[in-house]
Structure formats: structure tokens, C-alpha cells
């Protein structure tokens, strides 16, 4: 079991947007869905080590800015080539206006 770590404030992330969170040598991506739910995935594309924070979020998908690989941000599933390896997902909770991820 991991440790709950504050990633950001809820107000830091607009609906259907993302924010990069770096912790202990790793990069994470916190995403806020149109339904106002928060999700967290690894912040680096599994295809070519590109930061996903510069990518497009739309309709439950995060798209890599380099080669347009797509991932389902709720499950981490690789949805479109060239990515064929899923992103790791991380548990998220919201408390008192802050977003925590379990690392």
C-alpha cells in the first residue's frame, strides 16, 4: 500500500484538462473529467518517453503530443498506435479541495 500524496488543488485543473505532477523522480498526470472526477496516470507516454501534459484531453482520452498515441485516462489502456503498452493508473481521492494520489 502506498502513501497518499498531495498532487494539486482541485481548482488547479479545469474540466477536461490535465496537470503534470512530479514526485520522487516520477512524472504523473492528474486529469479532471467532464463529470468532475479526477484520475491519475503515468505522465510519460509508453511509446517514446514524451510528457503527456502537453497532450490533448477529450472524450475520456489523453493524446500524446508527439505521435498522437491515445490512452483511456480512466483505465490507462493504450487505444491507438503507436502506443501498445498501457499507462499505469494511480488511486485518487479528493479531500478539502485538494487532489491526492496514492503512490
Automatic annotation (TrEMBL):
Keyword annotations from UniProtKB, A to Z: 2Fe-2S, Iron, Iron-sulfur, Metal-binding
Keyword Nucleotidyltransferase assigned: no
Q: Which residues cross the membrane?
A: none
Q: Name one GO molecular function term.
A: 2 iron, 2 sulfur cluster binding
The Swiss-Prot or TrEMBL record lists the needed cofactor(s) as: [2Fe-2S] cluster
Does this UniProt record's set of keywords contain Ribosomal protein? no
Signal peptide bounds = none
* One matching Pfam family: Rieske
Rieske domain residues: 5-101
Q: Which NCBIfam families does UniProt cross-reference here?
A: MocE_fam_FeS
Entry's family note: Belongs to the bacterial ring-hydroxylating dioxygenase ferredoxin component family.
Q: What is this protein called?
A: Rieske 2Fe-2S domain-containing protein
> What organism is listed for this UniProt entry?
Shinella kummerowiae
Amino acid at each position: 500500500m502506498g502513501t497518499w500524496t498531495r498532487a494539486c488543488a482541485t481548482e488547479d485543473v479545469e474540466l477536461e484538462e490535465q496537470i503534470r505532477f512530479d514526485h520522487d523522480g516520477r512524472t504523473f498526470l492528474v486529469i479532471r473529467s467532464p463529470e468532475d472526477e479526477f484520475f491519475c496516470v503515468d505522465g510519460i507516454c509508453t511509446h517514446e518517453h514524451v510528457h503527456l501534459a502537453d497532450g490533448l484531453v477529450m472524450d475520456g482520452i489523453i493524446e500524446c503530443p508527439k505521435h498522437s498515441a491515445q490512452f483511456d485516462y480512466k483505465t490507462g489502456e493504450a487505444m491507438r498506435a503507436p502506443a501498445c503498452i498501457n499507462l499505469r493508473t494511480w488511486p485518487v481521492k479528493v479531500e478539502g479541495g485538494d487532489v491526492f494520489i496514492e503512490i
